Amino acid sequence: MKRVIAMFLGAAALASGGVAVSQVNKQLAASNLGGQSIEGVVATVNDQVISQSDVRNRMRLMLIRFQGKVDDQLVQEVQRQAIETLIDEKVEVMEFEKLAKDSKIKDPEIDERIGEMARQSKMSFEQFTKVLADAGIPIQALRDQVKADIAWTALIRGRYAKQARVSEPRIDEMLNRIKASLNKPQYALREIFIYAPDEASRVNARQRAQTLINQINQGADFATVAQQFSAAPSASQGGDMGWLSPGDMRPEIETAIEKTAATPPTILPPIDSEGGVYVIKLAGKREPTGANSAIFNLKQVVARGDGAATKLQSVKEKAKSCADVPKAIEGVEGVSAVDMKDVALQQIAPIYRPALENLEAGSSDILDLTDGSKMAFYVCERRTGYPDLPSRDDIRSRLFDSEITMFADRYLRDLRREATITRH
């Protein structure tokens, strides 16, 4: 039921999205949604029509970000999700117009939201809309989606913002749980939750979960898939659950992690749970840290391809500190840098710990990675103690968002039950 506007991650994703869209256009032409000279009706919501054209355009919007292979199974899953999302949006906008009465969502507000998407993609408004048009997506399809998102956000904030209260004891409870977990192994998890309230729908949900796993294994970005298909509150963050200790997980997820023999990163098989099915990515594992542990803020600089060691040595000669790294790697093919914050020495793979044990600042020696690439650490900051805990404001925001999401999902389910929805 949960709908997330998970719009474009950047110019690279948009530019390469044409590959997926060209594939799906071929699939659509061969499906019951494409290649017809007369537009059919897919569904009606309180007598408002969702057409085949609406569904096709939404599918293109969803698939423009996919980097993996687009096969028949994915197209079917995207079609199902597109129809359900369009139904949700019809219901949401109708409810907004009924309750807001004289309040209207104006074109400048929609344009501003689309302009922000363009800026995030490092494009002008005109460039952004041209990329969409080249993919066969009319700008009105995006405007309709943005309008529904604005309407729903306004409704939820107005209806539930005062009800979603986060007490100080709840913050204390979560903070104490996080502190206690520092003495236990922790796992970095990403989730996709497929809503399936009964056993009949659970069978279909397992199949859908496996379809998504196949797509991810073929190269689709997990965060993109989560944003489009997950019904969990974490969907807007690409399914990121953060670092969790076993006691902080759902028991069925903890059991699946304990049983797996695979090392991170890996995707676990579909996991049945109350209300649906989970797809879990085990992104990392770290051992418990002590109060006197060395804690680092690092940059991990990796060089891949031919001449990797030479390229990385050149970067090391130019960059004497973390601040120098971005300029030093600019334009160097095959060299990238990743920030690693609040990492304890025990959480570094044992083979690489000696390079950091006595390093206070600057770069480590060049190290070998298992795939033949080369890597060096830059120490930006070193201190002693536990990794930084989230602030009380961070925890309050996290709990508030969870409450709001729960209210919104329940509200939308009620509205769908009350609406007259006919599928054709």
Description:
- This protein is of the alpha+beta class and 424 residues long.
- The chain is built from 14 helices and 13 strands.
- Strands 3, 4, 5, 6 and 7 form a 5-stranded antiparallel sheet that branches. Strands 8, 9, 10, 11 and 12 form a 5-stranded antiparallel sheet that branches.
- The longest helix is centred in the first third of the chain and has 29 residues.
- The N terminus is likely disordered.
Radius of gyration equals 24 Å
3D shape: globular
- Main sheet: strands, sense, barrel: 5 strands, antiparallel
Mean pLDDT: 84
Number of strands: 13
Strand content: 15-25%
The chain-level structural class is: alpha+beta
Query: How do the SSEs run, as a string of H and E?
Result: HEEHHHHHHEHHEHEEEEHHEHEEEHE
In short:
The protein has about 425 residues and is of the alpha+beta class.
Walk me through the topology.
Layout: H1 11-30, E1 41-45, E2 48-51, H2 52-63, H3 72-100, H4 107-120, H5 125-134, H6 139-160, H7 168-181, E3 186-195, H8 199-217, H9 222-229, E4 240-244, H10 251-259, E5 266-267, E6 271-273, E7 276-286, E8 294-303, H11 308-318, H12 325-329, E9 335-344, H13 354-357, E10 362-363, E11 367-368, E12 374-384, H14 392-418, E13 421-423
Antiparallel strand pairs: 1-2, 1-13, 3-4, 3-7, 5-7, 6-7, 8-9, 8-12, 10-12, 11-12
